[in-house]
Amino acid sequence: MARPAPLPAPLPATVRPRTAAAPTPPAPAEPDPAVTITIGRVEIRAVPPAVRAPAPSEPDGALRSGTAAGAGTLSLGDFLRGTRDPR
Fold first, then answer.
1. C-alpha 21: how far from its chain's center?
2. What is the rounded CA–CA span in Å between residue 57 and residue 60?
3. Any idea what DSSP says for residue 50?
4. Bias regions of kind Low complexity — which residues (predicted)?
């Protein structure tokens, strides 16, 4: 009868010293390539979103007056209900 090889002894837990500074996040990497998922005869291609610079902020009054660049947008609920009145 064969006996299994003994397991290696567990390593002792090491204690890291606490530091005041939080770890720095890694630098942004290149975007992942597109992924193609095939289910039967259907292919779904998932492409990572493009990295865009943040849009400049506008005063709140411009957004309420309807003259802002995003004034012609619909909410998801309005879109699904078929309401054509932009907010």
1. 25
2. 9
3. P
4. 12-22, 62-77
